[in-house]
């Protein structure tokens, strides 16, 4: 009954509205929009391709008068700090380090000072080293091509070294990464990813040794050849057939040395591979270093030898010599390698120069790459190892150049 009553009332009300008109017409009406109301016509599309058929004259024009003198290019815009004389509108790094450089007006991009008239690409380009062998720097002995001092007095340790200058006398660090030529992937990574100031050393039995040396020099790296020297304990490892032996004289070790030196051309020096036993035997070491001195080849010690006589014999035989403070990757963790690299910085600030040595493990390459990129703001310069080797033979000694193995510290290669 109730449903019938309410149904009748609703019907009567509807009939009244139908006959009396639309109730919304009885007063003002306002439309509320939840979103912006736009013209429902076809929207104008932005031109993406020349074939879109859009009339280019219809596109809005941008006033470029203020950009007339700005050059386009691929120069990175991150980490930019302005040197003295340039107006800075933002910060990209610690400006105090930049202002203290005293290198003139310019803008510092990613740690490199770009002066007026220079481009970022020009500043950061890698200068390739000359192809080896260089004329006059080799001779053939018993069918083996060996390095020699040229008739005009040039030595392999100078000619094949990467040029370096430190006129501002800043602390210097150097790094050699070795074991190259055995693993092609790691060798390629070291050549292409490490800064050209990092010295690379190659195993004498590397596959395509000259090819890899040529690639390294083309990328700006100076190179060393590794000399296998007798160790105390080889464990299950097999001794290299040309290992320099303790207790043996020139008749055994010099032919072995010549075989190793004749593997390739283009190296400024040699570096020990192992050798704790050999390096302690001064009598065995002397004839080997005699040959290096007479051929103008430098000697680098990797810092792993505790009781070595190499430094003393190098002084006596006038061999250009440098010694690493320590290996950087005896423990293959990022933290341990980083601590060793930080120690090099400390030594460099205290003594003027320091050198480290490592192998081409992926973690070593990665940590060295990061470390090298952060040296600039610290006021430390990355130098090739050749910049730290000792004096030339006695009659050619230059008082401004010293060996890192010397007990008396002095400026490192200030004249370049």
Structure explained in plain terms:
With 416 residues, the protein is an alpha/beta fold. It folds into two domains: 78-124, no CATH class; 138-396, TIM Barrel. It is 29% helix and 15% strand. It has twelve helices and 14 strands. It has helices at residues 2-20, 95-99, 120-124, 156-159, 184-193, 209-218, 250-261, 276-279, 282-295, 310-317, 334-351, 362-373; strands spanning 80-82, 107-109, 112-114, 138-141, 144-147, 172-180, 199-202, 223-229, 269-274, 298-301, 321-323, 326-327, 353-359, 381-383. Strands 6, 7, 8, 9, 10, 11, 12, 13 and 14 form a nine-stranded parallel sheet that branches. Helix 7 links the parallel strand 8 and strand 9 (269-274). It is globular. The model is unreliable at 32-38, 45-103 and 391-416 (pLDDT under 50). It holds the Pfam family Polysacc_deac_2. This is Divergent polysaccharide deacetylase family protein. One of its GO terms (biological process) is carbohydrate metabolic process. InterPro entries: Divergent_DAC, Glyco_hydro/deAcase_b/a-brl. It comes from Hyphomonas oceanitis SCH89.
Mean pLDDT: 77
CATH class identity of the largest domain: Alpha Beta
Oligomeric assembly: single chain
Report the C-alpha radius of gyration, rounded: 36 Å
Number of domains: 2
Strand content: 5-15%
CATH topology of the largest domain: TIM Barrel
Query: Can you summarize the main beta sheet?
Result: 9 strands, parallel
User: What is the H level of CATH, i.e. the homologous superfamily of the largest domain?
Assistant: Glycoside hydrolase/deacetylase
GO biological process, one term: carbohydrate metabolic process
Protein name: Divergent polysaccharide deacetylase family protein
Organism: Hyphomonas oceanitis SCH89
